[in-house]
Amino acid sequence: MDGPRPLERRGGKFENIEMQTLFGNLEQIAIERIHLFEPSALAKRAAGYYVAYSGGKDSDVILDLVRRSGVKYTAHYNVTTCDPPELIRHIRNQSDVIFEKPPMTMWQLIKKKGMPPRRNIRFCCEKLKERGGIGAMVVTGVRWEESSRRKSRQMIETCFRHEGKQFLNVIIDWTSTDVWNYLRQQGISYCSLYDEGFRRLGCVLCPMERDVERQIQRWPHIARLWEKAIKATFKPGISSFDSAEDLWLWWLDRDSKRKKETGQMMFFTD
User: Fold this and answer.
1) CA dist list (Å): 81 to 147, 211, 227, 228
2) Domain spans of the chain?
3) Domain 8-196, what fold?
């Protein structure tokens, strides 16, 4: 093949006849994309691509694709300090993945901010998960199918925080079925939590997680660290909650709209 087949975007997908027929073409096109943008990656840094690896199924796919493409790269896992131990073990099995330690733990970050992260205030992502790859071409596993918000993402993007940082969302048009088919076809190992029914892997009790009871029962030690850190942000007389326990229970109830009649969550002052 003389470079990637032309792609036309229609209704949230790149239209390509070959891509729609045989799965093998998905794999080939992804590798061609990696080859196509390698000169840009090398122009940014001699080490080539910066692979953002989280240990999830999509990350396993992009890491394997980059390995098989033969391009220059380094793979990095940004330690969050609250990921499941099963996920950490899986990541440690990837010999080429570099563990990047954060400047502070999640618990120290909450103390510094004076509040816990929420669905619409996820400062933890910026400070812990997305801090790497400045000045590099970053390969990610972002996919359109993952959420309505991600349907507007592009295959190539420039970071709005750091102008010199770019993203190559190399499997942006893959479905979850495509991801699992690839993992099984290539015999790639994945985190055991998927076999237990966990659909999303990442920080335990992430603000985006709804099934908090299951996670508290599975990882009580991490849940206790969350509880301690969040309760420590309670400020009597300033917070709109009656007690530290009330604040903690409100944070766990992701669908709760509880607040005092007097108005806004004064607790979010930062």
Assistant:
1) 25, 20, 15, 15
2) 8-196
3) Rossmann fold (3.40.50)
